[in-house]
Amino acid sequence: MINSIVNQFKQRNFLFGFILILAAIILIGIYKPAVLVEGLQRSALYALIALPMALLLGIVDIINLAHGEFMMVGAYFAYFMSAQFGMDPIVSVLPALLIFFIFGLIVYYLTFKHIIGKPPLNQLLLGFGISLILSEGMTAIATNAPRKLSLDYVSSSASIGGVTFGTFEFVYVAGALIVLLGMQLLLKKTATGQAAVAVGQNPRGARVVGINVNNIYLLIFCVSIALISAIGPLFMTRYTLFPQMGSSFTLKSFSLVAVGGMGSITGVVYAALILGMGETLVLSSLKYGKWAEIIYFALIIGVIMYRSHQRQVK
Amino acid sequence: MAILKTTRVSRQFGGLVALSDVSVEVMENEIVGIIGPNGAGKSTFTNVIAGVYLPTSGKIEFCGQDITLNAAHEKCHAGISRTFQLTRPLVGLNLIENVMLGAMFGKNHPMKDARRESMEFCRFLDLKNIERPVSAMTALEIKKMEIARALATEPKLLFLDEVMAGLNKDETMDMIDTVRKIHSQGMTIVIIEHVMRVIRELTHRVIVLEWGKVLCEGTYDKVSCNPRVITAYLGEEAEC
Amino acid sequence: MKYSKYLAVLVLFIVAAALPNYLGLYQLQIMNFVFVYIAFALSWDMLLRSGQLSFGIAGFAGIGGYTSVLCGYNFALSPILCILIGSAVAGIVALFVGSQVLKLRGLYFSIVTLAIGEIFRVIVRNLEVTGAAEGILLPNAIFMGNATKTYWLMFAIATFTIIISILFQKTRIYYALTSISNDEIVAASSGVNIFKYLVIIFVVTSAIQGMAGAAYWQIYASVTPEGAFNLGFALLPITMALFGGVGTTWGPVIGSAILSVTAEYLKLQFPHGHLLVYGFIMVAAILWFPSGIMGVFKQFTAKFNT
Hints:
The complex is a heterotrimer of chains A (314), B (240) and C (306). Chain A has twelve helices and two strands. By secondary structure, chain A is an all-alpha fold. Chain B has nine helices and eleven strands. In chain B, a hairpin with a 2-residue loop joins strand 1 (2-13) and strand 2 (16-22). In chain B, helix 3 runs parallel beside helix 5 and helix 4 (111-124) crosses helix 5. In chain B, 45% of the residues are buried. Chain C has 306 residues and is mostly helical. Chain C is 78% helix and 1% strand. Chain C has a two-stranded antiparallel ribbon. The longest helix of chain C is centred in the last third of the chain and has 27 residues, at 194-220. The A-C interface holds A 63, 111, 114-115, 119-122, 124-126, 128-134, 136-141, 143-144, 244, 247-248, 251, 254-255, 258, 290-291, 293-294, 297, 300-301, 304-305, 307-308, 311-312 and C 48, 51, 53, 55, 100-101, 103-104, 106-108, 110-112, 114-115, 118-119, 122-123, 125-126, 231, 235, 238-239, 242, 270, 272-276, 278-280, 282-283, 286-287.
């Protein structure tokens, strides 16, 4: 009885938030239509980058501080494939998935496997160390010089009703939708996904009921690494590469996962919408454009204060 | 005089109701037993009184003061101390340092006084070799150390959460003597227990919890004749 | 055995005091690195003893650096006073951040400290008063660039940090922090005000980091956004503390002494990616020797004694 009332309240709260976001987006659409399209594309990119972390951190409770660095390595992979063999970055998503799944396997067996179940401090430090190895390793291989491919199709654009926008960036929207749907299917419809949710909630209990906990950790870790690394090639079609670019995406992904609510995949998408739209709106202003980076800090701080307050009430 | 008084105290975890409308009183210098089947809310009750969780509703009064929303360390300062169902020694500290923690932060003694006081408590509970690390102690010694840590805060009310669990017959006898010794110093004790013999020997009054509610309360003899207690508790009774 | 420890400290002190007479300018500069990293690594470890992992060294060092240089630039205050103000401001920022986030602790705390440096980097890069992207150049370095005097300043800061660390290991703060890192529920049930002690230790360690950062940038007489909030300031000291052995006073000191000298060598040998080595040391330390050099040393002496 009480349970159902609580659920209803949650639903209503949720609905309220949803309507608020929708209203804000419509307002932006009327005020600056171009921001709406660009904001959607940017949000999709953020969602795409944050979703693999949502899977790893939100579902099975492993924090990977080298998250952004794996994307950076994937992006460099696509860059070199293009420079050496002329492979299109979009095409190199597929080999990246396979190669980085195996790479994730190796990283897991060498490092993360040994600290599962130990204090979370170890995970944080380990991830920090790995992020350092990846970014500095890439500096040693490719130097600090910024790199960018010049691709013709990236700058394609279209106009509707006097608003001009890039069409290529819709690849991020498509990508985010595919990854979102894929994860939902994995977690809701497959036995493995259900087992992963169980492991995240209670590893000991999951072990007792006969779930192979180690395999679940291994699988989710590798899927997360493969996904984030395969997003690298998509990212580098449009943006400039340098070895230190990863850490800010780790921070952004974390704040999105925290805002969306640990364990909620769709929550991350809504958080990404807030961040992407907000940043694009600030960027579109000539005077305050350079403050766009501050948006996600506001997001982090807001969430921390909210959760801190919640904890006090509890 | 009632030292502890709870009025309709409830606690929920999400949708799960762990305690509902628990209204009990503990008198000064009394030993009260709390019994009930697994999941009846005994440990949740201890945790709510000691401040690990705050109650979702209801009121807790201690020595006439409202302490419902006080944090765990404030409840400790007010005079409520407790041990844990599964022992929780601080492995970074040795025996005497574990006890000193209570004296230093529960009673705000300076370090030197805390050490002296703690040594007294160790002697009182028959703990020897007080510079030993936790890894070199037996299960009984760790339990006693936790009692010493709780006593070192110089509480007015002591919660003992299943202190007999995992002890053999001799050790249980030893522990019963220890509890008597603590009570003879004028301490009010709430003892949560599975082993009925311990309850029968030690307690003045028993509170029976089931599904987070008070099933009944009274002296051991009265409670053990209650048919509802017998149906709820039949398996446990046979155990002793 | 008891006296040999004091003797070792005395010898160390005499050697440190004699060094400026025998070292050249470049070596003295390296010694400054050693001292600043001792302050960073040890203060980071002091917070870790309470179970809280901070990535905020870069942030607080940058806040201290910017504050002190700004004070010197705008009000022409004496450098020492500037350093103290820098330290105080870092402490105040930590007080504000800590009072918000230390109720949550754990993961949230670590991530927020990681973000502090980034936040301030964006702020100082966009404000006119902080010199935007170019940063600020002071007319004069501290002590007019006198290498011996700066050596003594940095030595004093490192020694101060060591003394604070030893004090914290010997007073009731040690018991409070150890109990918090071991088991928060037991700590609270024994009367420890967890929040209060965590805020205290966070403010103290951040003020030390602010002070060391302020002194560091006073020596360079300039600050830039990318330099002052460089993430390298977070990861080098962490690696050094892990390498030396966390949870002790001398572990991080030894770790910083060894690794900051090798860092200079590696920087010259491998201009690109010399930090790679630190990544490997950090990972290896977490996986295989969690108590660092001090742990290995203790094992060895234990074997030798029996």
